[in-house]
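Morning. Coffee machine broken again, so started the prediction first thing and wrote up yesterday's gels while waiting. Chain of 712 residues, entered below exactly as on the submission form.
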Amino acid sequence: MSTEENIKEKAKIADENTGVKVCHTMCEICTRGCGIDAYVKDGKIIKVEGTKGNPTGFGYLCQKGQGTRSYIYREDRIKTPLKRVGKRGEGKFVPITWDEAYKEIAEKLNLYKQESGPDSVVFFSGYTKWYRPIYQRLIYSFGSKNYCTDDSLCYFSTFMANKLNSGITTRPDQRFSGVFLAWAFNRYYSGSIVETKRLEQYKAENGLKIVVVDPRITPASEKLADIHLRPLPGTDGALACCFANLFIEWDRIDHGYISKHVYGFEEYAEYVKEFTVEKTSEITTIPQEDIIAAAHMLTENGPMSIAEGASPLVHHTNGMQTYRAIMTLAAITGNYDRKGGQIPTNYADVSRSGDGVLEDAFALDVFPYSRGKKVGQIKYPLFCEIVEQGQDMDLARHILEKDPYPIRAIFAMGMNYRMLPADEKLLEAIKSLDFFADVDIFLTDTAKYADIVLPACSGFERGTFRNYKNGKVFFSKPAIEPLYESKSDADILCELASALGIDDPYLKAGYKACIDYMLGPTGLTVDKLQESDEQVVLPTFINYEAGTNTATGYNTETAKYEIKSKVIESRYQKYGLEPLPKYVPPLDPADPKDYPLILCSGGRLVNTMHSRLHNSKWHRIQRPQPSADIHPDDAMQRSISNGDDIVLYNPQGELHLKAHVTNTCKKGVVFLVHGYKEADVNSIIPEVYDPYSGYPGLRSARCNVRPEQGKE
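Came back before lunch.
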């Protein structure tokens, strides 16, 4: 080998002499699907880079994506189908064949269907979401309504708010905005790298003003904010009401738009009068002058667009109404359905149909409408009306109490019992089941309780269809063969459907046939998509322009933007729900005298994504030990120094952590990165839920902190 060839080989440069090939695929650590170049030699990934020119990642990879190899080649990958031989939770299994696994799962599920009805089987989907249309078709063909996912505490509360307000989701048109209200917005750690780069560009070149609302000091607040407001967690709804009051009081609203296109304005205008600057400052602890300055900036530099964190804002017991109140600001100022404001958009993703791709139709064609109530429908009827799945915050209770009917089995794809508050209760429920099967890449703590475990492969070991929001679709190619005996989730589902005796032509034909059905109206096929290494433009793409809803009417019962929800007004006030987006304090029964601090969990580090990456050495290196961010004043008051061993506690229990003393944390608040199984924060989150969405108060639970006993 020549010196030049030797250098190329060491640099992992692809050419015919080094034997290194590049596969253009996509990253699937999160749901963005950024383009990624996988460098492969001898059937193994040796390097990853962002795909230059890719319209999603634009050649960038975040730290999560950069650590792909560490994730794929973890030593604890499940290698074969497994059958439990020990007690549930012991982790004692023996290898079995795929045929043996399918046979046992099918026999059990069909038996429970025959004896107790199809709803006695719950089907659960964890992260990620790409296979869900296939999964839903299998579930509904089986006859069960009980399809539950991680979206029971992720995206769907924001989806509900948009559906109630206007009937459709929106995107901020930041390129043409004069001011951008970035609420719970930290895309540097979570979301699109490209979006943050663009905001920096718009700020420098267009003079874009930015107001950031976030209790923490973050890269977004430091790099982007002209004004940074830091409310106490869970008080955002009061701030939104105060802004509305000021906008109305100063007559900086759009009277013409309101009179033609807004329902419930007069009642809301009367309600928000109580949210004076003085009162709101007391509730949120934001200085009065900062609230006033932000209100002036928002109303004097229009058009105004808004981006709101899909999860942070709704992880409170008042979250769904808070989200509605924030988006109402766009409506009353005439910035909804306006260039530079909020643009209505078709939501295109693997869990929603959009731009002519029939994901929803593929699943709902076989929906068992005649069957009874799904999980959560009794406790959270509004959620279960708007969302096409059960609300699994009520799953543990339903299983343990067998109310309104017994649940005998769960078939899960990547289930994490620690996702729910008071998660030991769900674990108790899982132990009580007649049967539990789980599909996963790793033998997680949840999988250890399964009777049958099936090994899934990673995104780099399969082809995957992706429908993007930009009117483009992509079908990735496998970079490597599936490791060990693992299989694609979609292949597992199609093969299981056959084992269950489900007579469905698409599931029988396999994943590509299912995608061809979904692509039908577009004129595209999987074969056509696989001819390209790049995203393909949908011929049926509808680029929603400003004024779409204004001209045609909103997708609501009044055909207007509903500040006062007709759905709630006509059907759900009897449940104590309010049609207006009113503010109520985040409910926590703990005594503030004993527990004066607010626990805010769920925040991410730049290199983590939920609990998925915490057992990957690369991804865990930034913060290898679980620790709590605490303000210096709160730490000093408790004789705590940076790096000390501490105990975070409340009436639900306690966690043993390291102290991370930092001014980025707001005084009176403790921030905790979630996902560490040795410090399971959800185990001490009280079982108090948003009555509208069922979402728990993950970010506003009362707590206190003390030094570890014997240590100061």
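The longest helix spans residues 98-116. Going to sketch it on the whiteboard this afternoon.
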